[in-house]
Amino acid sequence: MNNHTFQALFSRDIQQLKEELNLFKDEANMWKALPGVTNTAGNLSLHLIGNLNHFIGATLGNTGYVRVRELEFSSTGIARETLLADIDKTLEMVNKVLGSITEAQLAADFPFEIFGKNSTEYYLFHFFGHISYHLGQINYLRRILEA
């Protein structure tokens, strides 16, 4: 797969994240969890923003982003407009970094090991799956909380 395909897929799903948040009729529901579920749609959104900015922005794009993962799961009540603005910044960064990555960089080892030594392309597939997984959770939470 080439960088433009990754860029298109990541862009599509980041845009879908924005759409999911905009579909909440009651903004307060973004910060509600269901019995037996620990994460809210808001926290999952913060987690995706942090993950992308850390692994694509800081690791591949040298953006200088410093991740505070604990805040992704402990923050609450952040306004939808703020989340959407942060998602827009994340989308811009992802497009810039993935738009400039070369075939040689995709084939090279990822700068550090998470699940063993693998190529950058392998990890981009993993990060893409991570977005999809959490998008499904956000969609499900929204549908149940606002049924």
Rg (C-alpha, Å): 15 Å
Alpha-beta classification:
mainly alpha
The total tally of domains equals 1
The helicity comes to 55-70%
Q: Oligomeric state of the chains?
A: single chain
Uncertain spans, ≥5 residues at pLDDT below 50?
none
Mean pLDDT: 97
Our count of helices gives 6
Distance between the termini: 39 Å
Count all strands and give the number: 0
In CATH, the architecture is Up-down Bundle
Form type: elongated
What is the chain-wise order of helices and strands? HHHHHH
Beta strand %: under 5%
CATH class: Mainly Alpha
CATH topology group: Four Helix Bundle (Hemerythrin (Met), subunit A)
- Quick one: CATH superfamily? dinb family like domain
Largest sheet: none
Secondary structure layout plus pairing:
Layout: H1 3-22, H2 41-61, H3 69-74, H4 80-100, H5 103-107, H6 120-145
Helix pairs in contact: 1-4, 1-6, 2-4, 2-6
What would you say this structure looks like, in words?
With 147 residues, the protein is an all-alpha fold. The protein is elongated. The chain has one domain: Up-down Bundle (Four Helix Bundle (Hemerythrin (Met), subunit A)), CATH 1.20.120.450. The mean pLDDT is 97. Helix 1 (3-22) packs parallel to helix 6 (120-145) and helix 2 packs parallel to helix 4 (80-100). The N and C termini lie far apart (39 Å). Helices cover 67% and strands 0% of the residues.
